[in-house]
Design brief:
single chain; about 675 residues; alpha+beta; nine-stranded mixed beta sheet; about 25% strand
């Protein structure tokens, strides 16, 4: 795989970010997102990059993309018409779901709309027992009758989810073959392929969503591939998955449900990589863009991966980086509720019209507008030359919408907006750390996204996080993450058994099959054996528990000693997560997992930085408000800061894609990669 010119593209709610690395030299391009046709934002960015750098489209050797297409489809519940074929008696599994309510005390709460309407859900006689043995053969005649019914609908996709198919996929494959032989012209998703794991509702839902998203993803990728091919881009398109790994566009077409957290996952990968360069292995990531703030936790350099993540109102059980999202971005709108309380988000001003200060006709106060009013943003520098900031207009709109109704001054209202937004983000940081059994004091905070560095130092001080790392490419770190992420394929199957009764050889056999499948997939992507790694794990639980914990399997052959080690690791993880362990209780195997990893060569990101004195980076001093007090604050131009520079707060550091705020009593140094290391309580 050539590493001459690599391009990563991440589409956000406000901006589309492109990072181009040519022989180690990094270039950044930001263009406005085009929500109605996302591919246009990509081609606009590519064209601008070519014009600015001189890099020809035909010089691109690697092209990776983080997409929000499937995410938006789920959030907006706009997907393809889908049919569901399931075991007789289980037609309403999607409707029934789980007994859990969004609000336990709200007896009027409504469940989200089902992915497949009831009149498009079909039953067929068939049955397997819990070990996969056939107790009722598939009624092939009934499947043929269903084919005629499906053809009469507008369904462009079919999901097939039979009971216990993770133990035996025979009936699902039979049903698919019969429907195709009866000329059902639709795409197919089998639960035994999409999610061969326990929990009927989650497995059926995930499979149905995958089916519903297939036509959406296929159309989008088709449009994008056509556009970039016409430009002259030669390499095949690579797509970021929710697990933090890259897959081909062809695989993404078949497994769109695996891309639901594509963009945020790329950011976590980028943060992990940059922090690793600075020897920070334990970190909390904070990606604050224009619409939302995504936070995640990385332990010993590895992002925490979960298989029980909710996207919108739907629980999705494919492997995803454990990311918690709140509606607090630079464009989040501040408003006053019916009780007279100040609220921020989740509604966003988006890219158009955007915050008031964009000058595109926006009238709703946002977080970005508040930062401007408090002096953290330079009205003459933080936007492109195409936009002009009218500070007086921002003041007037804040006064009308917030200050006057609250009985506050404009700056007090602006500070209130930041306080409310910070409180929301602080809760999110606690969710991924304290509520998971981790002490924030043992972690660093990596802040990125266009707005993340504006808030990170305040949040770190509130949580006693000792240091904040702000990468040189903070504003486009998700796009950079696409270029340093490995190729990943996940394989799993549920085998619910007493751990004591599990035969080590059966474990070995299943893992060997997964490794063989993963090796074949990686070889198809032209990877050498030296570039392949295989990571095994098992999901274990105490007998009678509803949920399980994932435990890594040691390298080497699996024997009785391995089983004992895994049992002890499970006890330790249960104690870490929940504060206790039951070492005398029987343990149960639930799921076996293998991750096939294709190692991607990473570029050298050492910063070509100025060699002048740190004082030469000071461009001005201006009044900046911190907690109601105004400080005469130095403003540094980031590109002028030399390696090993250090200075004390309060300070503002202005970069090409983001602005960093350093509070009073904090200090900063610049590492060899151009990252800012902020000591929070120095």
């Amino acid at each position: 795989m050539s590493n001459n010119t690599r391009v990563g593209v991440d589409i956000g709610g406000t901006f589309t970010d492109l990072v181009t690395i040519t022989d180690g030299h990094l270039e950044v391009t930001k263009t406005s997102s085009t929500p109605t046709a996302p591919e246009e934002g990509v081609t606009n960015g590519l064209t601008e990059t070519r014009d600015d750098t001189g890099v020809a489209f035909t010089d691109i050797d690697f092209f990776a993309h983080g997409t929000t297409v499937t995410t938006n489809a789920v959030l907006e519940q706009e997907w393809a018409e889908t049919a569901l074929v399931t075991t007789e008696g289980f037609r309403d599994a999607l409707e029934i779901g789980r007994q859990a309510r969004p609000d336990i005390y709200d007896f009027q709460s409504e469940k989200p709309p089902t992915v497949v309407s009831r009149d498009h859900r079909y039953e067929v006689p068939e049955r397997l027992n819990e070990r996969g043995a056939v107790t009722t053969s598939l009624d092939e005649a009934a499947v043929r009758e269903l084919a005629e019914q499906i053809k009469e609908t507008n369904a462009s996709s079919v999901a097939i989810s039979f009971l216990f198919s993770y133990e035996n996929a025979q009936h699902e494959r039979q049903a698919k073959d019969i429907l195709k032989s009866e000329d059902v012209s639709a795409s197919f998703s089998l639960s035994s392929e999409v999610l061969p794991e326990i929990r009927e509702y989650e497995r059926t839902l995930t499979t149905a969503l995958n089916a519903a998203l297939k036509p959406v993803m296929d159309q989008y990728l088709g449009n994008l591939e056509t556009e970039i091919t016409e430009l002259g881009v030669r390499p095949s398109l690579e797509i970021m998955q929710s697990n933090g790994g890259i897959i081909t566009a062809d695989v993404a077409r078949t497994r769109p449900v695996n891309t639901l957290l594509s963009g945020p996952a790329a950011g976590v990968q980028g943060a992990s990589y940059v922090a690793g360069l600075t020897d920070i292995g334990n970190l909390i990531t904070m990606d604050m863009g224009g619409t939302s703030c995504d936070v995640s936790l990385v332990e010993d350099g590895d992002p925490i991966v979960a298989t029980d993540v909710e996207v919108g109102d739907y629980p999705i059980n494919v492997p995803m980086i454990d990311i918690h999202t709140v509606g607090a971005g630079g464009g989040s709108i501040a408003w006053i509720d019916n009780g007279g309380a100040l609220r921020v988000g989740p509604r966003s001003a988006g890219a158009d019209p955007g915050p008031i200060c964009y000058g595109r006709g926006g009238t709703a106060p946002t977080i970005t507008d508040a930062q401007l009013l408090l002096g953290r943003l330079n009205p003459d520098a933080f936007l492109s030359d195409e936009l002009e900031v009218d500070v007086d207009d921002v003041k007037q709109q804040f006064e009308r919408a917030l200050a006057d109704p609250l009985g506050k001054s404009v700056k007090e209202a602006a500070q209130g907006v930041l306080d409310v937004a910070n409180a929301s983000m602080e809760r999110a940081l606690r969710v991924v750390s304290v509520e998971r059994g981790y002490d924030p004091r043992d972690f660093g905070l990596v802040a990125y996204g266009g707005a993340g560095p504006l808030h990170a130092t305040t949040l770190a001080a509130e949580l006693d996080i000792p240091r904040v790392l702000i990468p040189r490419t903070a504003g486009v770190l998700s796009a950079l993450g696409l270029l340093i992420s490995d190729i990943l394929y996940d394989y799993s199957t549920s085998r619910v058994r007493s751990w004591a009764a599990v035969d080590p050889q059966s474990l070995q056999q299943t893992f060997d099959e997964f490794v063989a499948e993963g090796r074949e997939q990686l070889e198809n992507e032209n990877l050498e054996q030296s570039q392949m790694q295989f990571e095994r794990s098992v999901d274990l639980r105490y007998a009678g528990q509803s949920f399980e914990l994932s435990v890594p399997v040691p390298d080497g052959a699996i024997d009785l000693t391995t089983k004992s080690t895994l049992r002890e690791r499970f006890h330790a993880k249960h104690r870490q997560r929940y504060g206790h362990a039951y070492t005398d209780e029987p343990v149960e195997l639930v799921t076996l997992r293998t991750r096939a990893r294709g190692i991607v060569e990473t570029p050298d990101l050492r910063h070509e930085t100025a060699t002048s004195d740190v004082e030469d980076a000071v461009v001005e001093q201006r009044p900046v408000q911190f907690n109601g007090q105004v400080y005469d604050t130095r403003v540094y131009q980031r590109e002028r800061l030399p390696v090993a520079a250090d200075f004390a707060g309060p300070a503002i550091v202005e970069g090409a894609e983001s602005t960093a705020v350093v509070r009073p009593s904090q200090s900063v140094r610049v590492d060899e990669y151009g990252s800012l290391i902020v000591e929070v309580n120095s």
